[in-house]
Amino acid sequence: MASSLVLPSRESLAGQWQLSSSSSPARTCVLELAAQPPMLTGDLECATELLGERPSGWEPTPDGLWLFDQQGSGLVHLNRDGAGYSVSRQQGELTLGRKSRD
């Protein structure tokens, strides 16, 4: 029997996340994913350095999560990877994981 991927709700993904890159392991960006509307806040300058462009929005997909620029164009699609998301790029692997509560 075929399995189906489930689209997570924005509300289930809202909160603080950490974006990091294997090419800059000391650099971790704390981002806030807001559900309504689906926008990003937090350390956007840091995220811009890792992504090459400034992210402003996001949307869940059945197999991952899209980060969008200010015009609504897709910057990067991160694939679901356990409890977080990741993508391999020429500049190294990007990972997005929930920020642990201190």
Overall number of strands: 8
The total of helices stands at 2
Low-confidence stretches: none
Proportion of residues in helical segments: 10-25%
Q: Write out the strand line-up for the largest beta sheet, numbering strands in chain order.
A: 3-2-1-8-7-6-5-4
Q: In what range is the share of β-strand residues?
A: over 45%
CATH top level class name = Mainly Beta
Report, as a whole number of angstroms, the end-to-end distance. 42 Å
Q: Give the overall silhouette.
A: globular
How many separate domains make up the residues?
Answer: 1
Largest sheet: 8 strands, antiparallel
In CATH, the architecture is Beta Barrel
Given helix and strand content, the structural type is mainly beta
Q: If you consult CATH, what is the topology?
A: Lipocalin
Q: Over all CA atoms, what is the radius of gyration? A: 13 Å
User: What is the N-to-C succession of helices and strands?
Assistant: HEEEHEEEEE
Task: Estimate the mean pLDDT confidence.
Answer: 93
Features:
102 residues, mainly beta, Lipocalin, 2 helices, 8 strands, metalloenzyme inhibitor, Inh, periplasm, metalloprotease inhibitor
What would you say this structure looks like, in words?
By secondary structure, the chain is mainly beta. The protein has a single domain (11-98), classed as Lipocalin, CATH 2.40.128.10. 12% of the residues lie in helices and 52% in strands. It is built from two helices and eight strands; from the N terminus they run αβββαβββββ. The protein has helices spanning 10-13, 44-51; strands spanning 15-21, 24-34, 39-42, 57-61, 64-68, 74-81, 84-89, 92-98. Strands 3-2-1-8-7-6-5-4 form an eight-stranded antiparallel β-sheet. A hairpin with a 5-residue loop joins strand 5 and strand 6 (74-81). 20% of the residues are buried. The mean pLDDT is 93. This is Protease inhibitor Inh. It comes from Pseudomonas asplenii. Belongs to the protease inhibitor I38 family. It is found in: Periplasm. It holds the Pfam family Inh.
